[in-house]
Batch of 4 targets.
Target 1
Amino acid sequence: MKLVPVGNEEKSVDILFALLAERTPGESISHQQMPLLENHRKFVMSNPYQVWYLIQVKDDYVGTCYITKAREVGISIFQAHRRKGYATQALRDMMVLRPGKFYANINPSNEKSQQLFKGLGYKLLQVTYILDAERKTWQEQMADAEAAE
Ligand SMILES: CC(C)(COP(=O)(O)OP(=O)(O)OC[C@H]1O[C@@H](n2cnc3c(N)ncnc32)[C@H](O)[C@@H]1OP(=O)(O)O)[C@@H](O)C(=O)NCCC(=O)NCCS
């Protein structure tokens, strides 16, 4: 296995877009809807993370992994390549390349990701709640909740 920097390559944009297309809302926190290809390209080209890699196995790209500037780790493996130990190996390799503290923010319904990070020695740190301020104010949400009772 090899970790290949994403860089500014058009090839990376396409591989990462295909990976996004496979993801379901329950697997992710940040990615709930498919972005437009153009917006996705801008994001990739903006060099958003501390490090960002494609995971290469022989001639195939099997997934991606990254560390954000806040030391949050992300990983995604193409469905056809899952359960072969690639996520475990890629995360281990990346953590060796960039040693230090790591966080993993995981959707609570994403059991397999929780198992993956527990297996790598990560410990549960906190439970974070969100009130979606962009959609409704908290007063509106409280009023909705009261109306539903
Ligand atoms: C989560 C994900 C990265 C795991 O990748 P993977 O290459 O299949 O993982 P590995 O083969 O290294 O498996 C490592 C461990 O993860 C857990 N795991 C992986 N897939 C699992 C599944 N389908 N069910 C239960 N546990 C699972 C297991 O504990 C596994 O260890 P084991 O095989 O010894 O039982 C992959 O399923 C994926 O890309 N999912 C979509 C994106 C995502 O959820 N990313 C994480 C967001 S934080």
Target 2
Amino acid sequence: MLCISCGLEAGYNRVVVELTSGVELGGFCRSCEIAEFGRSLERGHWSLNEGCALCGRDGHFALPRWEATATYRGDDVVGSVEYHITDRTLTLCDEHLHRIRSGTEDARRRAAAEDPV
Ligand SMILES: [Zn+2]
Ligand SMILES: [Zn+2]
């Protein structure tokens, strides 16, 4: 799964899910999370009821964390990762999700302009 912001492999940090459809738009990697939010996503108390974490409008996109789980099947332990969207999951409105995505596009465009091939 690729990061919606930098376009690189997102790893198992967060996933971006459109709430109405349940469609996974992509991942949100650790370095982009730190760049955008620092550690506030880990520390804050976020709630679906409060809408977008950044502006308070309706949150249309959830950014739950991947969580590692171990399932026991007979004698085998099967490790997997999954996410849960609850009322404490961070959500963003369409505008703020768009800013996270386009912020990096701008940076890429600037880099391309400064470095003509
Ligand atoms: Zn990223
Ligand atoms: Zn917002």
Target 3
Amino acid sequence: MSLHLISHALCPYVQRAAISLIEKGVTFERTDIDLSNKPDWFLAISPLGKTPVLVVDGAPIFESAVILEYLEDTQPHALHPHDALDRARHRAWIEFGSAVLNDIAGFYSAPDDKALEAEVAALRAKFLRLDAELVEGPWFDGHRFSLVDVVFGPVFRYFDVFAAIGEFGVFTGLARVRAWRHELERRVSVKNAVSEDYPTLLRDFIRRRNSYLSQIMQTGGPKKTVTQVRSADRRSLDLVLSGRSTEPDV
Ligand SMILES: N[C@@H](CCC(=O)N[C@@H](CS)C(=O)NCC(=O)O)C(=O)O
């Protein structure tokens, strides 16, 4: 069987497929395309004009969640739980991961400080939910690396670049999420799902957005924004957290 992943260097949905393929030890070819100048051959096989597409023996499959399911159906080293109810729960959290990616896009595209604060609050609310969901590490499902981990590897990767731009307080005090993030950034499959120049490419991409985050990149960290976010967030934080971290993070 020949597997060819049609990819974009920064796309988090592509990374899902790449991480799964690496975890499963499957050989695959990968071709990056320019999404601002989509080749005709790509448009011919991608009905929504989006990456990823996985071409299986010449047959294209689109939508990352579907690609992940296909790889579960056909390749070794299951990343989904065996039990149907557990699988349903994992699928739901994969969907949640896509909602987090939408908030991340909102964050780096926010036109002004108010919009950025709203996106930080939305992200933080989602990670608070996740923190409550995580029970024992190192992975989402305890000792078993699963597709939910596959999906959150690319999510957390964004925040390594955001952290170099400013302190946004998204993960402050969320000990379980932070521990999970730390494990995921060290996982070989997660690391190898992007090229070494990913941080540079992402910074260039953010700079070109002409968003509030692009401005912060040029003028320095958003100290005022963080203070405002923290005070707005304090009540929900106090309800949820038993310990408080003062470490700077994103
Ligand atoms: N629901 C899709 C989302 C894929 C997606 O949004 N891909 C982006 C890049 S990360 C894309 O190709 N965007 C190009 C466009 O929308 O024109 C999936 O899970 O595969």
Target 4
Amino acid sequence: MMVMNKHGAIIPVAMIAILVVWANVAVCLHATPSDEERSAAHIEAAISFTIDGPEYSSNQYSDLVSAGGEFTFKVDLPASSPFNYTDLIITWELQTDWNVTVTVEGRTLTWMYTDEANRLINVTVTEKANTSNIVSDQIQMEIVADFDKDDLPDVWERKYFGTIADTDGTGDYDKDGWTDLEEFQNGTDPTIVNAKPGFLETYSWLIILIAIIIVVIVLLIFVILPKMKVQRAEDEKKKIAAAVEVEKSLLGLDELEEKK
Ligand SMILES: [Ca+2]
Ligand SMILES: [Ca+2]
């Protein structure tokens, strides 16, 4: 959770970045303003914000959040604020995963992003009694599909484990021989035992290679070599036949010479 206010004294160091984003929102207030002071007060004097979500980190300009995580954004009033929540109209404007902008009214906004993208959330706070007192600001959210960089989509991890913290893909949750990453790649449920990967699955590439070699050898032995043998025999026959013809011609010439 992150909290920001103008005075900032109790803000955790890790939350400083997001505080910078909201820095122009918070200004000091009188603890007990008169009606006149109150009516003239600016709303930015009275509010702070929180963001709450399962996986989230921030820098000065944007927040990095995990796709599929449910995030709650909330406007907070400090104890010293002269306003009540009922004095304010709080409006959130945000983009959905389909790039449709929706507007939600209320102190809190809960939203789940499922797609990897950059999104802007605009928040507007208006004092009901003085609608010219308007404060607006925005926060940029970068939604990433794999927040913990374990090659498992965070949406998939949450679906089966409820969190992205339980597996990094190398474990085997259901102890069925398939790692959680393999279960994801195979499209199987990592929490339900599947048939253990046998020899065929483990050495499938080797089996395919051996099968190809066997096919080549069989073709060589039973098809190509016999054909070559037959061809050679035919060639031999032709050579012999040609030699016989030559012999016959020579003999014919000799007989003619003798008759002369
Ligand atoms: Ca992940
Ligand atoms: Ca498994």
